[in-house]
């Protein structure tokens, strides 16, 4: 009989809580569950905050959250799951950054916490109470951690950079319009 240690139980709790919250947020975006707006509404919102095309951005964000969250909760493909979720949360944090840190002011604290928890799980691994462990870690090799986090960081930087340029151009256009009036 296997005796699980505190680390295994702690990682299970962290995976279930972080993964569950992420999966629920992704389901809001993809399916409109839990009071969400589905792909159409989320796509319109994504366009309004500078992520274009909106529906594609909503799909990518929803998949990163729902897929990454579900895989984290299961402890399956943990490096890729954690990286995907962390990338999605970095994109969300970029939107909230102008409002400061604290969530009650619209800040990035919540998105950053979820993203860092997901990245931490990608690095630490899922523990023995996971599908990765049950499958012999075929989808959780040491080399996969830096690759998954690196690829996700690069893709996130491109997406957030493009979004920030759109937002900046829109703000400059609005300023020019004000001066013309």
TrEMBL record:
<feature type="transmembrane region" description="Helical">
    <location>
        <begin position="107"/>
        <end position="123"/>
    </location>
</feature>
<dbReference type="Pfam" id="PF07681">
    <property type="entry name" value="DoxX"/>
</dbReference>
<dbReference type="InterPro" id="IPR032808">
    <property type="entry name" value="DoxX"/>
</dbReference>
<feature type="transmembrane region" description="Helical">
    <location>
        <begin position="143"/>
        <end position="162"/>
    </location>
</feature>
<comment type="similarity">
    <text>Belongs to the DoxX family.</text>
</comment>
<dbReference type="GO" id="GO:0005886">
    <property type="term" value="C:plasma membrane"/>
</dbReference>
<keyword id="KW-1133">Transmembrane helix</keyword>
<keyword id="KW-0472">Membrane</keyword>
<protein>
    <submittedName>
        <fullName>RpiR family transcriptional regulator</fullName>
    </submittedName>
</protein>
<keyword id="KW-0812">Transmembrane</keyword>
<keyword id="KW-0732">Signal</keyword>
<feature type="signal peptide">
    <location>
        <begin position="1"/>
        <end position="23"/>
    </location>
</feature>
<keyword id="KW-1003">Cell membrane</keyword>
<feature type="transmembrane region" description="Helical">
    <location>
        <begin position="71"/>
        <end position="95"/>
    </location>
</feature>
<dbReference type="InterPro" id="IPR051907">
    <property type="entry name" value="DoxX-like_oxidoreductase"/>
</dbReference>
């Amino acid at each position: 009989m296997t005796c699980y240690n505190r680390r295994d139980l702690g990682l299970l709790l962290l995976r279930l809580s972080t993964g569950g919250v992420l999966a629920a947020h992704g389901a809001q975006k993809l399916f409109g569950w839990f009071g969400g707006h589905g792909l159409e509404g989320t796509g319109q919102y994504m366009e309004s905050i500078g992520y274009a095309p909106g529906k594609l951005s909503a799909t990518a964000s929803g998949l990163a959250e729902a897929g990454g969250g579900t895989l984290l909760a299961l402890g399956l493909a943990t490096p890729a799951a954690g990286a995907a979720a962390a990338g999605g949360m970095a994109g969300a944090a970029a939107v909230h950054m102008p409002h400061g840190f604290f969530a009650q002011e619209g800040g990035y604290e919540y998105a950053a916490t979820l993203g860092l928890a997901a990245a931490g799980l990608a690095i630490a691994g899922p523990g023995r109470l996971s599908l990765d462990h049950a499958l012999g870690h075929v989808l959780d090799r040491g080399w996969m951690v830096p690759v998954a986090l690196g690829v996700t960081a690069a893709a996130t930087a491109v997406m957030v950079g493009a979004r920030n340029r759109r937002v900046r151009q829109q703000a400059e256009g609005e300023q020019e319009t004000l001066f013309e009036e």
